[in-house]
Amino acid sequence: PAWAVAGEPFGVQPIVYVLGSDGALKVSYAGFIQAAVLTGAGGALLPSTATDVRITSGKGIIQDLYLNAAGDGYVIRFTLTDISGVSLAFVDSPEFSVKSGDPYTIGINLYPGSTTGGQPFAPQPVVSMRDKGGNQVNGSGTITASLSVNPTNATLSPITALVGTVIDGLAIFSDLIVNESSAGYKMLFTYIGFIL
């Protein structure tokens, strides 16, 4: 794999060749190539349909494979199996790194805690910008908080606290209050085209 970005298919997808003892391609071999993470930063190989491919004309051609977590020291092991799933041989990729991608969505790092009407949430919410793999990434701008489910027609305030400034990919809110006590509230966070 090459040009690896978290959550996005490798820029160069792996192709595994099945060779005989004479070094010739075994074009009639029937079996599978299974891909799995041997070492790395804890990411998962996805999608599952790309980690177990049928050998065709002596080659296991893998498509759309990616890792969801950025980090260094990744090695992928490709295992040759027969049609019954018995492992026969393996080959390991060179060590490679996976970079964080561009901002793609937002996620909640810290959920607002329970409170009573008129008292600040404890803790206050923290929202981050994330790439396609769900990794926190740097960015700037603002994230707005609102109530998406509001059973008492309450007010989320103060107005000055409804907008969190994104610094190094994080928006840390403070002083948010709902003025009415009730169960069932849901908070909505919006960043440009991203909604959570």
Describe this structure in words.
By secondary structure, the protein is mostly beta strands. The protein contains no helices and 18 strands. The chain has strands spanning 15-17, 31-39, 45-46, 52-54, 59-61, 66-67, 71-82, 87-92, 96-98, 105-110, 126-130, 141-149, 156-157, 163-167, 170-172, 177-178, 186-191, 194-195. The strands form five sheets. Strands 10-11-15-14-12-17-18 form a seven-stranded antiparallel β-sheet, with no helix packed on it. Strands 2, 4, 7, 8 and 9 form a five-stranded antiparallel β-sheet that branches. A hairpin with a 2-residue loop joins strand 14 (163-167) and strand 15. The radius of gyration is 24 Å and the shape is elongated.
How is the secondary structure organized here?
Layout: E1 15-17, E2 31-39, E3 45-46, E4 52-54, E5 59-61, E6 66-67, E7 71-82, E8 87-92, E9 96-98, E10 105-110, E11 126-130, E12 141-149, E13 156-157, E14 163-167, E15 170-172, E16 177-178, E17 186-191, E18 194-195
Antiparallel strand pairs: 1-5, 2-4, 2-7, 3-6, 7-8, 7-9, 10-11, 11-15, 12-14, 12-17, 13-16, 14-15, 17-18
- Main pleated sheet: 7 strands, antiparallel
Distance between the termini: 32 Å
Strand ordering within the main sheet: 10-11-15-14-12-17-18
Number of helices: 0
**pLDDT below 50 for ≥5 consecutive residues: which ranges?**
none
User: Using DSSP, what is the number of strands?
Assistant: 18
Helix and strand string, N-terminal first?
A: EEEEEEEEEEEEEEEEEE
* Sheet/helix structural class: mainly beta
**Percent strand:** 35-45%
Question: Shape from CA axes?
Answer: elongated
The share of residues in helices is under 10%
Mean pLDDT: 94
